[in-house]
């Protein structure tokens, strides 16, 4: 299934590894921040409502 | 869609409502096109006559380099919109895009360096293109650092948008300066890694799909992050009002 | 505006005013280089133009936060803003004062330090000329950076991060003039480009610096 990358296997595989890791990183960080801010905002809004 | 209605989305609430519907579509199509493009390019394309299997790096290097530049251009446009029309969503979109653009720049730099290693024999070469991307990375870093350093939201938006404008002019200047700097005596070392001119069809089509994937991913991430910034800004406003004893 | 200029120059020249700081730093950097790269005169000759340019640039960088910091702290910046002077004029005068008290001394001292680094004879003229043409740009660009970070505590590091990428074109062309001049090659292109960048920044960047300062003084 894996193509024969010859002598450049290290270069090609590490490029893909590095890129996919970095893409996954920015996606994960963005998702995590989004969730956190969303719940923080809901908490603040609840507090503000209850304070009248 | 008339230009008038485009400004409606500058309203934070409307922006969140609209992106509620639209974001999932962008996210899924990004995932799909990325997978198709990269799998096609990695598994189903031949090796290059001169570069061997390293040509497969093109499916990462070219799209990420493209997005690194386009992200900055988008930030430039949204900064101008903020300066002229004071739409907060615009300023927040620029803030949201910067880290994504920076990651794209890093990917372009790393894949460029890794691709260059078997070709040039060193882990880093001061090739004009790579050098320009290194400078672009520094611009992203400074822009993000300035946002983080300033407490007041509006002040931060104003200062960073002016920085983006001035930075864009200098980024362009640097591009030409760097080309001048490295074409003098060392002609042989500057190997151009982006061969848009003569890419054969068999490489070009999966490359197009990969590029589309990166574009869609960028859009999805920026939409998501802008929503986050809008919420964060609203939260800070609510907290400030609370503290003033409203 | 002349009054502002003389006041700033006098402030910088006082003890603790930062005048000697840039020069001392320049000297120290040049002295440290041979310890870092080895004392072979052939090598030092080759890198001398670049090192001297870099040293001057870093010495400029060090003194940038003083441009607005003192006036910001004691409120005189607010007073200046309400005066009839246009903000663009104020920032230009500030940049000029910085150049006269930091950049110009560096230019004058550079040939002396060039001796320490075995700068080739032909290089002295071009080094001095390129620095004379380039340091005004460094001051104007630095003023922009200083305006951006004026309100921040410990903004010095951020100031460097923002300003250094903006310095790259001037550094490239300035060092290129110095290097080609030292080796006897033609210097017209980089010289013209260096001059162009300096003129462009002097003419246009004050508008951005003024806008930034107005934002920070709100």
From TrEMBL, chain A:
Subcellular location: Cell inner membrane
Pfam families given in the database record: CcmD
UniProt entry keywords in alphabetical sequence: Cell inner membrane, Cell membrane, Cytochrome c-type biogenesis, Membrane, Transmembrane, Transmembrane helix, Transport
Segments crossing the lipid bilayer: 12-31
Domain of life the protein comes from: Bacteria
Coiled coil: none
InterPro entries: Haem_export_protD_CcmD
The name this protein goes by in its record: Heme exporter protein D
Protein's organism: Roseovarius tolerans
Lineage, opening ranks: Bacteria, Pseudomonadati, Pseudomonadota, Alphaproteobacteria, Rhodobacterales
């Amino acid at each position: 299934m894996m193509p024969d990358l010859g002598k450049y296997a290290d270069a090609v595989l590490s490029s893909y590894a590095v890129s996919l890791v970095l893409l996954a990183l920015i996606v994960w960080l963005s998702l995590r921040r989004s969730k956190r801010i969303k719940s923080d905002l809901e908490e603040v809004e609840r507090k503000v409502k209850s304070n009248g | 869609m008339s230009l008038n209605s485009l400004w409606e989305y500058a309203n934070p609430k409307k922006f969140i409502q609209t992106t509620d519907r639209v974001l999932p579509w962008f996210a899924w199509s990004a995932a799909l096109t990325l997978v198709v493009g990269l799998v096609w390019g990695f598994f189903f394309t031949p090796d290059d006559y001169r570069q061997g299997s390293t040509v497969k790096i093109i499916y990462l290097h070219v799209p990420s380099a493209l997005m690194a530049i386009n992200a900055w251009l988008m930030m430039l446009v949204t900064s101008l919109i903020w300066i002229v029309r004071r739409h907060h969503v615009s300023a927040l979109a620029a803030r949201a895009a910067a880290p994504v653009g920076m990651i794209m720049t890093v990917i372009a730099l790393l894949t460029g360096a890794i691709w260059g290693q078997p070709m040039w024999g060193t882990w880093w070469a001061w090739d004009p293109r790579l050098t320009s991307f290194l400078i672009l990375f520094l611009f992203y870093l400074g822009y993000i650092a300035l946002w983080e350093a300033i407490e007041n939201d509006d002040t931060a938006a104003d200062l960073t948008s002016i920085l983006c404008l001035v930075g864009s002019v200098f980024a362009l200047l640097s591009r030409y300066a760097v080309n001048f700097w490295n074409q003098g005596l060392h002609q042989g070392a500057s190997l151009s890694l982006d061969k848009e001119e003569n890419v054969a069809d068999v490489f070009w089509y999966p490359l197009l799909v990969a590029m589309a994937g990166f574009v869609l991913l960028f859009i999805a991430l920026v939409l998501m992050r802008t929503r986050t910034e809008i919420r964060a800004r609203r939260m800070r406003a609510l907290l400030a009002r609370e503290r003033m004893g409203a | 505006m002349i009054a502002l200029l003389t006041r700033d120059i006098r402030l910088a020249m006082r003890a603790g005013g930062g005048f000697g700081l840039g020069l001392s730093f320049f000297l120290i950097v040049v002295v440290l280089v041979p310890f870092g790269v080895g004392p072979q005169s052939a090598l030092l000759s080759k890198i001398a133009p670049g090192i001297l340019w870099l040293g001057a640039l870093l010495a400029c960088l060090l003194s940038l936060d003083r441009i607005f910091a003192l006036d910001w702290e004691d409120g005189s910046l607010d007073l200046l803003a309400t005066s009839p002077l246009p903000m663009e004029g104020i920032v230009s005068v500030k940049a000029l004062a910085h150049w006269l008290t930091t950049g110009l001394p560096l230019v004058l001292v550079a040939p002396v330090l060039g001796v320490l680094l075995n700068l080739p004879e032909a290089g002295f003229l071009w080094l001095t000329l390129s620095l004379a043409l380039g340091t005004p740009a460094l001051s104007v660009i630095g003023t922009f950076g200083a305006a951006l970070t004026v309100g921040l505590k410990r903004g010095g590091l951020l100031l460097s991060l923002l300003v250094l990428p903006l310095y790259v074109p001037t550094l490239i062309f300035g060092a290129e003039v110095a290097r080609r001049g030292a080796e006897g090659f033609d210097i017209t292109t980089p010289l013209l480009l260096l001059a162009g960048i300096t003129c462009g920044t002097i003419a246009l960047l004050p508008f951005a610096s003024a806008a930034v300062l107005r934002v920070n003084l709100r």
